[in-house]
């Protein structure tokens, strides 16, 4: 607290006039330091730190040749990036040497625009099940009927169900980083939960050369 310390005064001047006593102010800063630490502690405990915004990607394990037949791919889509081009096909890949029930696989071309073959429109139609159920979860969250943790858990459960689309991303050595980032953004908008970057198969590489 502030203190006033009086200096010795009252002496007479040259003409015998009595001078006024001089006072010096001394401020004790100890309470201010305590207050500063209390405020610092309060703001540290009540502040919300920004969380990094990341999107999890599932990297598939290396294939082990144990003689067992690979599991069938259900409700999946594969995007192939080459240069500034975006190609896709649904479900399993069938080369010309081993065509599937509907013949060999054909690459369709997509884009990041707003047309019929835009990535956003394709994903919205493929992942309609998750998107519709997510709208209901969003309403419950806005009305505070469910907690944030419950919302995240239920949304994750939706994205791994059979009805939800799973996406594989494959690139060649000419693919643009911008195209990869744009594709991941579109997958996030479409609430695609299972995303796995992986390598091109020999059959896909051959078909890609023909396409380009």
In short:
This protein has 212 residues and is α/β, with parallel strands linked by helices.
Kindly list the characteristics that best describe this protein.
5-stranded mixed beta sheet, single chain, alpha/beta, 212 residues, two-stranded antiparallel ribbon
Task: Report on the architecture of this protein.
- It is a single chain.
- By secondary structure, the protein is α/β, with parallel strands linked by helices.
- Among the domains are: 2-44, no CATH class; 76-127 and 165-211, Nucleotidyltransferase, domain 5.
- Helices cover 35% and strands 17% of the residues.
- The strands form two sheets. The chain has a five-stranded mixed beta sheet, covered by helices on one side. A two-stranded antiparallel ribbon has the order 1-2.
- Strand 3 (76-82) and strand 4 form a beta hairpin.
- The chain is elongated, with a radius of gyration of 34 Å.
- The model has no long low-confidence stretch (mean pLDDT 82).
- Classified by CATH, the class of the domain at 76-127 and 165-211 is Alpha Beta
The percent of residues in helical segments reads 25-40%
Low-confidence stretches: none
Run of helices and strands: EEHEEEHHHEHEH
Q: Rg, please?
A: 34 Å
Biggest beta-sheet profile: 5 strands, mixed
Kindly, what is the distance between the CA atoms of the first and last residues, rounded to a whole number of angstroms? Answer: 82 Å
Q: Report the portion of residues in β strands.
A: 15-25%
> What is the level-2 CATH architecture name of the domain at 76-127 and 165-211?
2-Layer Sandwich
Overall outline = elongated
CATH third-tier fold name of the domain at 76-127 and 165-211? Nucleotidyltransferase, domain 5
Strand line-up of the largest beta sheet: 5-4-3-6-7
Average pLDDT, to the nearest integer? 82
